[in-house]
């Protein structure tokens, strides 16, 4: 099983305003991006567990055109 770090071309974090934090996960090609999306491992429930947040506080947005996933947490 591959890790996200092995599959992603870029994983970066940044502040998204005063109250939010964003993780951007970008992939080099459509096949790998689709594999990660299909696995459903990057979902609000799992991210919430990792960061000790409610799943309702987590946004996971897929950007198909850019082969990227954006995760925003408070």
List the helices and strands and how they pair.
Layout: H1 4-7, E1 10-15, E2 21-26, H2 30-39, H3 44-51, E3 59-63, E4 68-73
Antiparallel strand pairs: 1-2, 2-4, 3-4
Description of the structure:
The protein has helices spanning 4-7, 30-39, 44-51, and strands at 10-15, 21-26, 59-63, 68-73. The chain is 30% helix and 31% strand. It is globular. The chain has 74 residues and is an alpha+beta fold. It has three helices and four strands; from the N terminus they run αββααββ. Strands 1-2-4-3 form a four-stranded antiparallel sheet, with helices on one face. β3 and β4 form a beta hairpin.
Structure characteristics:
alpha+beta; 3 helices; single chain; about 70 residues; four-stranded antiparallel β-sheet
Q: How do you describe this structure in short?
A:
The chain has 74 residues and is an alpha+beta fold. It has helices spanning 4-7, 30-39, 44-51; strands at residues 10-15, 21-26, 59-63, 68-73. It has a 4-stranded antiparallel sheet, covered by helices on one side.
């Amino acid at each position: 099983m591959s890790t996200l770090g092995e599959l992603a071309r870029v994983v970066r974090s940044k502040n998204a305003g005063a109250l939010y934090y964003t993780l951007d996960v970008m992939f080099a090609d459509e096949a790998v991006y689709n594999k990660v999306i299909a696995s459903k491992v990057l979902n609000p429930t799992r991210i919430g567990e990792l960061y000790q947040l409610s799943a309702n506080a987590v946004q996971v947005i897929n950007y198909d055109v850019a082969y990227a996933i954006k995760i925003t947490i408070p």
